[in-house]
Write a structure and sequence with these properties.
mainly alpha
């Protein structure tokens, strides 16, 4: 039994990218550039009907817009707050799903 087989490579790449940006307080610029490159590659291909993907997509788009700058671009700080919120939602969901799998496996061992 898997934790959730619905997330494909694009959704997982997006989630890990947003989580990285949310977790690392002072990321190396090279790492941020690589993560943004991944986001730009996968964002058009993610399935936004999956849980937490709309929030992850919105946060990722804000990071791209903040880095591009411009008159109506979000600040990097507000984009990072969006990443933190999306990453927290995704992490709590994955925690719940993983714990469900664990409990199911434990029940099978006892039976």
């Amino acid at each position: 039994m898997s934790v959730d087989g619905r997330y494909g490579a694009a959704e997982q790449s997006l989630a890990f990218s947003v989580c990285y940006l949310a977790e690392v307080l002072v990321p190396r610029q090279d790492d941020v550039s690589m993560v943004v490159g991944v986001i730009e590659d996968v964002l058009p291909h993610v399935d936004r009907s999956l849980f937490a993907v709309p929030e992850l997509s919105r946060a990722a788009a804000m990071i791209i817009d903040a880095r591009a700058g411009g008159k109506h671009a979000p600040t990097y700080a507000s984009a990072m707050m969006e990443c933190q919120s999306a990453a927290a939602k995704f992490s709590m969901w994955r925690l719940g799903r993983a714990h469900d799998v664990f409990q199911s496996q434990q029940a099978k061992e006892v039976a």
